[in-house]
Amino acid sequence: MRYGTGVMLVVLAGVLWSGFGLAVRNLEGAGAWAVVFWRSAALVPALMLFVSWRSGGQAFARVLATGWQGVIGGLCLIAAFLGGIYSIQVTTVANAVFLFAAAPFLTAVLGWVLLGERVRGATWVAIAMAAVGIFIMVREGLAMGALDGNLAALGSALGFAGFTIAIRSGRQGDMVPTVVLGGVFTMIAAAFVAPMMGETLWVSGHDILLSMAMGAVLLATGMALYTVGSRVIPAAELPLLSIVEVLLAPVWVWLFLGETASGGTFAGGALLVAAVVWNALSGMRRGAPAAA
After folding, report:
1. What is the pLDDT of residues 103-121, one digit of tens each?
2. Where exactly are the transmembrane stretches of this chain (predicted)?
3. 84 Cβ contact partners less than 8 Å away, ≥ 6 residues apart
4. CA–CA distance, 102 with 83 (Å, rounded to integer)
5. Could you tell me if residue 291 is inside a domain?
6. Contact call for residues 22 and 253 (beta carbons, < 8 A)
7. Which of 19, 43, 192, 196 is such that its CA lies 20 to 30 A from the CA of 255?
8. Domain that residue 113 falls in
9. Domain assignment of residue 292, yes or no
10. Torsion, CA 63, CA 67, CA 73, CA 75, rounded to 10
11. In this predicted structure, what is the pLDDT of residue 234?
12. DSSP secondary structure string, the chain?
């Protein structure tokens, strides 16, 4: 595969993922647990087909081979999936996706603490920039009564960071089988927790179909495109290409629904995006993979 083709696939993945906010805004009334349950119900078989295609029919063996690191990573995805949906439901899409962008920096800190991974000086500068951006956005959320949405978005980012650390600790080259486990664990958790919280999984047919479309089309297809495309792209360049998701998500809800965000959200978000770009560009200049 050529480099240009890989770039196109990774960017297309970001475009697909950027549609989550618009999709969630079009739900009729499903709660977060119901959404992640039905989304995972479509995500798991779709990704199993992808893993089977890549492994010559050994999908189940690949999933089982993830070991305890895969189990931990899959459990972390419960928080990532649930926090992502809930944050979009209770705060602006811009606010949520900008905070999601903190995941690489949380990953860098966790990798330093838990795995002893070296963090470059430029990445520490980027982490400081991101922390200021997060502070601005969380303070804004507190003033606007959306603190729980901000915290849920940060919880989602932390869940993705834990997922990434679990994969690194197991030296896994493919994240997709662990995502399959994450989908299975999310469905099990939703089936038990939703009734205890007074939330039903049997929502309207519209919400079920839309949630399943999020799983099979936006998440699974995007992950397949990203996995294939990223194989020919240096690690330091991937965050730059993936930022497409963060930049486009607020645009879709503004174009189709007229949803805007506060000045504080965009100021903090701009700092987060700048931190991601700074970290990626510094990694490219050094000719080494970015620490985050």
Report:
1. 989 999 999 999 898 888 8
2. 7-24, 30-51, 63-88, 94-115, 122-138, 150-167, 179-196, 208-226, 238-257, 263-281
3. 20, 96, 100, 152, 153, 156
4. 14
5. no
6. yes
7. 43
8. 3-286
9. no
10. 90
11. 77
12. --HHHHHHHHHHHHHHHTTHHHHHHT-SS--HHHHHHHHHHHHHHHHHHHHHHHHTS-HHHHHHTTHHHHHHHHHHHHHHHHHHHHHHHHS-HHHHHHHHTTHHHHHHHHHHHHS-----HHHHHHHHHHHHHHHHHHHHHHHTT-HHHHHHHHHHHHHHHHHHHHHHHTT-S--HHHHHHHHHHHHHHHHHHHHHTT--S---HHHHHHHHHIIIIIIIIHHHHHHHHGGGS-GGGHHHHHHHHHHHHHHHHHHHH-----HHHHHHHHHHHHHHHHHHHHHHHHTS----
292 has a pLDDT exceeding 70: no
Task: Note whether residue 203 is domain-resident.
Answer: yes
202 C-beta neighbours (distance < 10 Å), count: 9
∠ CA 182-94-268, nearest 5°, is 105
Structure tokens at 126: 């980027």
d(Cα 123, Cα 44) in Å, to the nearest integer?
A: 34
Per the CB < 8 A criterion, the answer to whether 63 and 181 are in contact is yes
Kindly report, residue by residue over 54-70, the tens digit of the pLDDT: 889 999 999 999 999 99
Query: Is 282 contained in some domain?
Result: yes
Amino acid at site 269: G
* Residue 213: partners with Cβ closer than 8 Å, 6 or more residues away: 23, 42
Phi/psi at 35 (5° precision): -65, -50
User: Is the confidence at residue 144, as pLDDT, over 90?
Assistant: no
